[in-house]
Structures are given as structure tokens and as C-alpha cells.
Specification:
By secondary structure, this protein is of the alpha+beta class. The protein has helices at 4-28, 50-59; strands at 62-69, 78-85, 92-101, 107-118, 123-129, 138-148. Strand 3 and strand 4 form a beta hairpin. It is globular and about 45 Å long.
Length: 150
């Protein structure tokens, strides 16, 4: 009589060989076409942040914001000018913070501007004097807010 461990080991070896042969025969000699690969549906993006969308929509109301060098006869006279168009359906007030930065990144000035009671569809223009010594600056709007007028 054979030892029980030998029978188990032999049986395990035969089962492994048969399993390998079955896998090889199935994968190599199969006459059925392979299953088509399916592409998963495109990932849905999370809904955009409503506050960010509103801020972008509000910011578009500031149509232009530029430096206007009115210097004459050696006297520095540099202003900022802006144009606002109210694209909302409500009478609105606007407030924005800005800074003037030199090409090397130095902030030369900063302030806050206000425009009030702009009717829907209305465009308003304005200007404001600065203490800048040069017009060679970049204007950055650092905060912008539109609120409903009372």
C-alpha cells in the first residue's frame, strides 16, 4: 500500500497538470471570439462650484480696467479708468480691490473702487487718480463683488 502523502501529492500534481492543460486549451484553441472590450462611460465631472460660477459671471461685468497716463509738462498724473456693464437682471452695486505691480513684481499701489446703482444692461465708465510715478505697471483685480442695490 502506498503512503497516503504520496497519493495526495500525486493527486495534487495531476490536478495541477490537468488545470494547466485546460487553461491552455481554452485560451489557445478556442473557436469562440473573445468578448469585446467595453469602454467605461466617461467619468462625470462634479458639478461646478456655484459660488465660483457666480464670481466669474460677476467679474465679466468689469469690461475694462486700465491705466491712463495723463502726465503733461513733466508732472505725473496717472489715473485708472474702468467700464462696467451690468449683465444681471438686478440693479447692482460693484466693489473691487486692485493693485498696481511693476514688471519686477513690486506692488506700487492698491485701492478699492466702488460703483453704485447700475441698472440692468446699463454701462458706466469711471476714473480715479493714483499716486503712481509710472504707468509701466500691471493692474491686478484682487477681489471683485457685485451686490443687489436696495
Amino acid at each position: 500500500m502506498k503512503h497516503p502523502r504520496t497519493v495526495i501529492a500525486t493527486g495534487t500534481a495531476i490536478a495541477a497538470l490537468l488545470s494547466t492543460a485546460a487553461c491552455t486549451a481554452t485560451s489557445g484553441g478556442s473557436t469562440t471570439p473573445p468578448a469585446e472590450e467595453t469602454t467605461p462611460p466617461p467619468a462625470t465631472t462634479a458639478p461646478a462650484d456655484p459660488a465660483a460660477e457666480e464670481e466669474t459671471r460677476e467679474r465679466k461685468d468689469l469690461v475694462s480696467f486700465t491705466i491712463d497716463d495723463r502726465s503733461d509738462f513733466g508732472i505725473k498724473n496717472i489715473w485708472i479708468t474702468w467700464t462696467i456693464t451690468n449683465n444681471s437682471s438686478e440693479k447692482s452695486n460693484y466693489r473691487w480691490d486692485w493693485e498696481a505691480v511693476t514688471p519686477d513684481g513690486t506692488r506700487m499701489a492698491n485701492s478699492t473702487q466702488f460703483v453704485t446703482d447700475v441698472l440692468p444692461g446699463q454701462t458706466t465708465k469711471g476714473d480715479f487718480p493714483t499716486t503712481l510715478d509710472t504707468a509701466d505697471v500691471k493692474l491686478n483685480v484682487t477681489d471683485f463683488d457685485r451686490t443687489k442695490s436696495p
